Amino acid sequence: MLLIDLIYNISLLVFLIVFYQVVVSRNKREHVLRKVILGLLLGLVALVGMLAPLVYSEGIFFDGRSIVLFVAGLFGGPVSAGVAALMVGAYRVWQGGVGMSVGVATIVMAAGVGVVFYYFRRRHGGLTAIQAFGAGLVVHLLMLLLFLLLPNGIGFAIVREIWLTVLLAYPAGTVAVCLLFQDYEDQEASRDNLRWLAYYDALTALPNRHQLTEQVAKALSLCISTGEKGVVLLIHLDRFSRLNDARGYDVGDRLLQEVARRLQGTLGEKGMLARMSGGDFFVLLHDHFPSDSTLEQVVSGWVTEITTMLKTPVELDDLKIPVFVSVGVTFFPHDRLDTPVQVLKRADVAMHRAKWKGGNQSIFYEQSMSVVAEQQFQIERELRVAIAENQLQLYFQSQIDTNNNVVGAETFVRWLHPERGLISPGVFIPIAEETDLIVELGEWVLQKVCQTLANDTLGLIPGRMAVNISPRHFMHPGFLDSVQHIVQTTGVNPERLTFEVTETLWIHDLFDVVEKMRILTKTGIHFSLDDFGTGYSSLTYIKHLPIHELKIDKTFVQDAPKSKDSAALVESILAVARHMNLQVVAEGVETREQADFLSARGYVVYQGYFFCRPEPFDQWIKRITE
Predict the structure, then answer these.
(1) CA–CA separation, 167 vs 557, rounded Å?
(2) What is the chain's percent helix, strand, coil content, to nearest 5?
(3) Running DSSP on this structure, what letter comes out for residue 200?
(4) For the purposes of burial, counting CB atoms within 10 Å of the CB of 559, is it exposed (0-12), middle (13-18) or buried (19 or more)?
(5) pTM of the model as a whole
(6) In 3-state terms, what secondary structure has residue 467?
(7) 476-501: per-residue pLDDT in tens?
(8) Whole-angstrom Cα distance, residue 185 to residue 192?
(9) Distance CA 261, CA 266 (A)
(10) Largest separation between any pair of C-alpha atoms in the chain
(11) Residue 333 burial (CB < 10 Å; 0-12/13-18/19+)?
């Protein structure tokens, strides 16, 4: 009879697990309410079990409520245990009889032990089968001890009859029920975690793009119906990727968490803060306004507030990091057909415009920005095709010494588009610099230059060919292998190559830069420091780097005859080059006056329109051989 009662109660509990999972977990209910419902359901299960007890005498009977009440405490904590114990205890009081007080004590004891193990389970992450068996053994051992308190010695008779079954089968039943409930809880926790991850950012616990899009959709619909205006801001942390590269992702993550905390504190209840990927945060302001002008005043004030707040350095270990941001702002609705995706895209376009202008500023979206962004996207897409289909051409500009002899040339790339004609490098080079295209473009140029030099069997090309190498291309992991492969496959003499690099290269890994330069220098390749004087190189860098040539930036060359400051700077560069035995190339020479100014102050190689414009190879080679 005891085993049948045990099986009956376990069956009810299994049914309850399924019922609870289907009815309760499918609804988004508060955590406390869930526990109340669990307590009510477990209380009902216990009451059903008490309807068919094992009766020993009037008011003294045995049933399986102990397992049910223990489970209520174990998985629902004090709330579920209290609700279930109150229901079952009330019913037991209503039943009355001489065993009522022991029965109520058993109810309280089973629920109480369950609560104790509830906290044990929370601390240790769950119960093993052995621990669950031990917990069931404790409950039913205490229950048997309470039975000994029954009057007239009847408790001793009951214990002698049921103790073996109760201390073996009932703890085993407790194990089965506990593991079933625990498995359900684990599944539910996994589902809750997935639901949370679908709407929140794991690093900052802020809403993510999914939740932001839903909220923008609601705000957009409201504004369309009321005729008011809303606003979305995209806040980008300037140079965040550089911090990640320099100090690692751990420092970057901590910075993001601190920035999120500050932004949330500044924003407060004014709006919703969400994190995208990397160092990007979106803000959706809750307030809506009747006009763009009113909204622009409010947003400008708020942007000033957050930029001022973020300038206070973030202290991470031994670092003090001031945070500068580029902010893109867009209003909505743009029209009645506006969508959340379009709203977020406009904010992104405005933010990228702020970055393009140097960062650390805010830009309000204008329609023309989308046109420019679309054009840039189109150019990027078509440039990939141009590289693959050889739509690009090399142009050459002579470098001439003071005796009017051609001593070398600089190579330039031009794009002859099949539909648009010749596209200026000022249009496509900056776009290539922002993507991996600059690596492909650089390799294409170097390949063509090397082929041109290797095919010069008649020795018509004088001196060295200068090739511009972008910092992104130079720092690419495959740069050295690529250069060596091109040199070997084309058979070019590397001593006829000069790589022009800019001072921005030094902001990268200086050790890596120096190592690559020395390896290439050993093969015979020379290095020229382009745009010298416009950056921040120190003489120490120049002294220790394998630099063979300095190129004076054209702005100084063109201003030198008329500007004392530019003249002084040019003279200083010539003096440095003379003492360090470096060749000097003056680019942008466009007048006789500029050429005479330079020749009067030292040996200089000229490059500029006054002597020769960049032109295709056939025209250039014809010019220099005439």
Answers:
(1) 99
(2) 60, 15, 25
(3) B
(4) middle
(5) 0.56
(6) strand
(7) 889 999 999 999 999 999 999 999 99
(8) 10
(9) 9
(10) 132
(11) buried
pLDDT digits (tens, 9 = 90+) for 282-306: 999 888 777 666 777 778 888 888 8
Instruction: Say if CB 109 and CB 146 are below 8 A apart.
Output: yes
**Residue 546 structure tokens:** 């394998």
Instruction: Report pLDDT digits (tens) over 442-454.
Output: 999 999 999 999 9
Question: Among 56, 64, 86, 77, which residue's Cα sits nearest to residue 3?
Answer: 64
- Peptide bond just before 477 cis, omega within 30 deg: no
Q: Are the beta carbons of 329 and 299 closer than 8 angstroms?
A: yes
What length is written for the chain?
626
Q: What are phi and psi of 573, to 5 degrees?
A: -65, -45
pLDDT digits (tens, 9 = 90+) for 46-84: 777 677 666 667 777 776 678 788 888 888 889 989 998
Contacts by residues 248-256 (CB-CB < 8 Å, ≥ 24 positions apart)? 251/316, 251/317, 251/319, 253/203, 254/316, 255/314, 255/316, 255/321, 255/323, 256/203, 256/204
Joined tokens for residue 297: 């005043």
CA 550, 553, 555: angle at the middle one, nearest 5? 160
Q: How far apart are CA 366 and CA 368, in angstroms?
A: 5
Rounded Cα distance, 573 and 551, in Å: 9
Q: Which residues have CB under 8 Å from 197's CB, separation 6+?
A: none
Tell me the CB-side half-sphere exposure of residue 481, using CA atoms within 13 A.
3
pLDDT number for residue 1: 45
d(CA 526, CA 585): 14
